[in-house]
Amino acid sequence: MNLIKLCDAILMRNRPVYKPAMRFYKDLAFEDIPEVSTPLIKKTLSANGISFEEGHTCFISKCNLFNNCNTDDKAKLYINKTTGFYMCSLCKHSGQWGQFAASLSLRKAKKSEAKKKNDNDFSELRELNESLEIITQSTQELKSFDNVGFVNIFNKFKLPIIAHSLLESLDIRINSEQTILYFPLRNVENEIVGYRTLNSSTHQESTLPNIQYGGLLMFRPIRSRDTAILVPTISDFLVLSNSKLSASIVCLPNGVNTLSQYVLPSLEKFKKIILWLGSDNKAWDSSRNFARKLGEKRCSLIKPSEQLPHLQNVQDFKAIIAGSHVMWHKSITTFGTLRAEVLSDLQNIDKVQGVRWKRFPTLSKILMGHRRGELTVLTGSTGCGKTTFVSEYSLDLAMQGVSTLWGSFEIRNARLARTMLQQMAGIPLGENLHLFDQLADEFQKLPIYFMTFHGQQTIKIVMEAVEHATYIHDIAHVIIDNVQFMMGISEEQKHMDRFWKQDTIIAAFRTFATRMNCHVTLVIHPRKERDDEDLTTSSIFGGAKASQEADNVLIIQDRRLTAIKGKKYLQVVKNRYSGDLGIMTLEFNKKALSYAQKKPKEKAIETRPEVSEFEETS
Prior knowledge:
Blueprint: H1 3-12, E1 26-28, H2 38-47, E2 53-54, E3 58-62, E4 76-80, E5 86-88, E6 94-95, H3 97-109, H4 113-118, H5 123-138, E7 139-141, H6 147-156, H7 167-170, E8 173-175, E9 180-186, E10 192-199, E11 205-208, E12 217-219, E13 227-231, H8 234-241, E14 248-251, E15 272-275, H9 281-294, E16 299-301, H10 317-322, E17 325-326, H11 335-347, H12 349-352, H13 361-367, E18 375-380, H14 386-398, E19 404-408, H15 413-425, H16 436-444, E20 448-451, H17 459-473, E21 477-481, H18 498-516, E22 519-523, H19 545-549, E23 552-558, E24 568-575, E25 582-585
């Protein structure tokens, strides 16, 4: 058994909930998550006589949940202000807000089970120490190598060379085969709680034993201030650590993809955080999203620019860091504040246009790409393939790293996941069952999450789930299929007009997309039209609000049953970004369940003159 599997086995043996093999896709059980808010957490702590300090992202108090933590002053409890997730710095115990509230209720009621619930055998800490001991015994310190050996190893891993003296404080280790480097992860108490591994052959990075212990790859200079610079890769981390800056250098565990709530307590001690995540548009979007999670008032961003050299080529780090932009500002802004962002957009026009679809090049030519903060409405007649198309449309983006949340109210998640898996594979799954495990493992790595709702749901419950997922998993694309399933139940008066209900739902998602900088795709059924007439924006069910609020309106037109040579095609009837309109022929590959365009014969784009959003009519 290799080292990674051995560490996992120790951590998993008493905790089957963490076994990744239990599910081949990530299903979010939102119905199990109690409603949590910052005022509720404050009220609960105060009502139970728990004194606390309010940090940037967490409430911090002495851990008194467990009897054997009461006597140690180092036992601090960190409670996330948004989700209520808690973690003890001493015994490493963690859990959701519901567990914490239940434990407080038991203590207050003084039931016989209270002592049982409040006794902690430090099993999490013991399992962690066992895993770390395995790594220590099977590896050696990199500082034990001479300068020539150390340089050869770093060249093998394609890492930038740093001063040999820096190895003393970094405590990097390497396995006996010299194929894996181990970078220590430290928690809020500066204890080693895991390792970030780097493989020399695949250059893949992973975390051992588990990210839930809140460890970060961190370098703190002797004369460090209360400032941290966050970078996405180990290479960037080493370059900045070697640059003799007075700030602490922190390497994010998942790069620019997500910022886990597990690591937020380890960043509480910093009064100022500078995010230097890269020079592309995705890094810029992530910087702004992470800043909101970390607390905008203490965050500054280094904005991407073509003039900004790659971090490894920078000569004057202090000048670039001094030019970082403060994230926080009150409600009003000026062009002077926006000037740098406008220039950045112009300099990075291709990146600002968004993520381009690889399976639908014609759609990419019309819409220019998939951008955060926009609202897309997709409609089409019953049975025309809206769900099949939008599943592949979202899969294409997810395969390029766009974190996606699916809300499928019409079909079960298992069926949707099967469709997407077959679209990814491009072959019939039933005829290739021997490849299932391989394909499922590959699919499971994609940043796709599914809401467990099915059938009619209220907008309030759905929005709570969407907001939660966006915070926890840094969701960049939300798909709702379809809006009509949120109109059957409402806390409002039962006689409320259905058009008014739909307008309320559209307004909620429009506000969410703008505020959270997240793209939302809504599938809406059309009203009944004559079969021989094409659908238009006026055909979308409800009032005009859906087409007015949307940045993009897509219509699947199906002429196969009304004309001898009729075809099915996707029509772009609104495009607020560039104004280009056009059509994309949809040819269905039944074996792959795919509408992907054939590369040799790319369909020609049919466009109409650019239309400004100010010239559009309702």
